[in-house]
Every structure is written in structure tokens, then in C-alpha cells.
TrEMBL record:
Transcription is among the record's keywords: no
UniProt keyword terms in alphabetical order: Disulfide bond, Glycoprotein, Immunoglobulin domain, Membrane, Signal, Transmembrane, Transmembrane helix
Keyword Transmembrane: yes
SMART domains documented for this protein: IG (SM00409), IGc2 (SM00408)
Membrane-crossing segments per the record: 302-324
CDD domains, per the entry: Ig
Cross-referenced Pfam families: Ig_3 (PF13927)
Annotated InterPro entries: Ig-like_dom, Ig-like_dom_sf, Ig-like_fold, Ig_sub, Ig_sub2, IgSF_CEA-related
Superkingdom assignment: Eukaryota
Residue stretches making up the Ig-like domain: 129-201, 206-288
Gene3D superfamilies: Immunoglobulins
Protein name: Si:dkey-11o1.2
């Protein structure tokens, strides 16, 4: 904590303020007076309606509440106050009676301030590309100034940024991934300072959803398709085969021992839960038996062979009958 002491009135007897002093420390209320040839008759210091002390050429009389804390320098009329507390905030007055008579006076107004503490920088909402965003710099104690930095350099405001509320809030009209980086708020007063940082990662996507893999494979081979998407955070994936969802949430789709029936359209759907957006891509796969594997024949193949055999037998019977009749 600190005290902030400001000259209030009584020009000519007190110097221009302000004065700064830390809680627990001391402060010197100096006057502008130089030691006169004949000492002042009386120097009196007060705090509000309370007497701090009275000094005369014969000595000083310090008030009970200030014993051991206050000391008056009679030659100049200055007051030193130590072991400061928050309760020392208020109006201080001095009255000096010179040897020539009359009286000179002046007052200081004293305000207490806390050390800066509990500093933080927080976003008002999840940062999503294309939306507005506020970063708010908060702190406990007495904040006299705030200064923003980005990636260890002074923040240079772009067209989509502005500072307001005495630099407490940094606003983005529309945030983009180009705004990513570490933002630091430097909070200070005369006696203390703190840094608060926030690492900004803008969420976006998914974009550019793509499926990679073979378009044609042999029967019995392994189907292996891979799906990618530009997304922050990483997208979640869902696979469909001929518009029917497959129980697979990985970016890769793998199936061993492919059949003809596995031919069709594979769809990868990418979703970002933060941005609420999704995207998809399609991939056509053909599973064929054109590999020269003579040991494999699917149902269509078998039906074709049976039909061919029936035709051959029918022709043979027909030819045989013709030959018998000819004889």
C-alpha cells in the first residue's frame, strides 16, 4: 500500500506536490522555509482535528497517537511521519508563528493507495475467428496506469483494435488467427507494479477438409483412408459410407479384407465444437477383382459360369439330336 500526498493550499509555505510514501515507510512534509536567524515561536502540525505535535525553541510535544512516529524539525517547520498506515489518509495542516508575529499556514491532502495485486487478463468470450472479442485487464489495489504489450513488444493497434476505459479493455472488432500471440498488461502505481499475461489462440475452421487414399483396390486388400482439416482446436471426425454413418471417430478409416460390397462413396465430416462449424469431403472407392487372382469368383461370376454351362449343354444336346435324325 502507499500514500499519495498532494499539496492542497497554503502556497508559499509548502512545496508543490505530490508526495509519495509507502505504507510501513515514512514521509517527510517539508516546508519552503529556511532557518531564520531568530527561531520560530511555534510550529504546529495537525491531522484533521487531531494534534500531531507542537514545537517551540525549548522542545517539542508530540501527541499520544504519534509518539515514536512523528518528529518536527523546528528550524524549518518540517514534519517527518514514519510507520505509515492506511489510517494516515486525510488532511494535514501546518501553522508557523515567526518571531516577528503573525502566522503562516498550509495543508496537504493525503490519500491512501493499495499495492497492485491479483492482476489478470481475461477474454469476455471464447475467441472465434470473425467475431468480436474483449481482453480485460483487472487488478486489485490502486491502479494508476495500464500499458499493453504483445510478444514482448509495445502493442501497436491495428484497424480492428482499440483501447478504452483507461486502457483497461483491449477490444477486437473482428478477431482473426493473425491476432494470435501473448498479450501482456503492465499495471502500476508509484510504488508497485504487476504483469498479467494472456496467450491468445483464435479458434477457426474446420476448413479444407480432404480425404487421401487409393481410389481403386483389389479384393482382399486393406481399405485405408485418411481425413485432414485445418482447424483450431483439432476437428472431430465422423465417417459415412454411402450416406450411412460408420462407427469410427478417428481421422483414419481402416478396414481389412475388402469386398466388392465395400465399393462406394466414403464421406468424412469434420466438426469444431468451439466454432460450431463443420465441413466434409467425399471419396469414391472401387474394389475390383481385376488383379489376376483366378482363385476368386464372386456371386455374379458363379452365376455367369452356370448360365454358360447350361447353354453349352443345350447346344450339345441339340447337335446330338440333329445327327441322329440325319442318319
Amino acid at each position: 500500500m502507499m500514500l499519495y500526498l498532494k499539496k492542497y493550499e497554503g502556497a508559499g509555505i509548502l512545496p508543490d506536490g505530490p508526495l509519495d510514501a509507502a505504507i510501513g515507510g515514512s514521509v517527510l512534509f517539508e516546508t519552503t522555509k529556511t532557518p531564520p536567524e531568530t527561531p520560530f515561536l511555534v510550529v504546529t502540525w495537525s491531522f484533521g482535528a487531531n494534534n500531531i505535535g507542537i514545537s517551540t525553541p525549548s522542545g517539542e510535544n508530540i501527541g499520544v497517537n504519534y509518539t515514536g512516529r512523528a518528529r518536527i524539525t523546528h528550524s524549518t517547520g518540517s514534519l517527518e511521519l514514519s510507520n505509515l498506515t492506511a489510517a494516515d489518509s486525510g488532511d494535514y495542516g501546518v501553522a508557523i508563528v515567526p518571531s516577528t508575529g503573525g502566522q503562516e499556514w498550509g495543508t496537504y491532502s493525503c490519500f491512501s493507495f493499495m499495492n497492485v495485486s491479483d492482476a489478470s487478463v481475461k477474454p469476455t468470450n471464447p475467441p472465434v475467428e470473425g467475431t468480436s472479442l474483449n481482453l480485460t485487464c483487472e487488478a486489485s489495489g490502486s491502479v494508476l496506469s495500464r500499458k499493453w504489450m504483445k510478444d514482448d513488444s509495445d502493442l501497436i493497434l491495428t484497424d480492428n483494435m482499440k483501447l478504452h476505459d483507461n486502457n483497461r479493455v483491449l477490444s477486437f472488432t473482428t478477431v482473426s488467427r493473425n491476432d494470435n500471440g501473448e498479450y501482456v498488461c503492465h499495471i502500476s502505481n508509484s510504488f508497485s507494479s504487476m504483469l498479467a499475461a494472456f496467450s491468445l489462440t483464435v479458434n477457426y475452421g474446420p476448413e479444407n477438409v480432404k480425404i487421401s487414399g487409393e481410389n481403386q483396390i483389389k479384393v482382399g486388400s486393406t481399405i485405408k483412408l485418411s481425413c485432414t482439416a485445418d482447424s483450431e482446436p483439432l476437428a472431430e471426425f465422423t465417417w459415412l459410407f454411402n450416406e450411412t454413418q460408420i462407427l469410427n471417430s478417428s481421422s483414419e478409416l481402416i478396414k481389412d479384407n475388402a469386398n466388392i460390397s465395400d465399393s462406394g462413396t466414403y464421406t468424412c465430416r469434420a466438426t469444431n465444437e468451439i466454432t460450431g462449424k463443420s465441413g466434409s469431403a467425399e471419396h469414391r472407392l472401387s474394389v475390383t477383382n481385376t488383379s489376376g487372382d483366378n482363385n476368386y469368383c464372386d456371386t455374379g461370376c458363379i452365376v455367369g459360369i452356370v448360365v454358360a454351362c447350361v447353354v453349352v449343354v443345350a447346344v450339345a444336346i441339340g447337335v446330338g439330336c440333329y445327327c441322329v435324325q440325319k442318319k
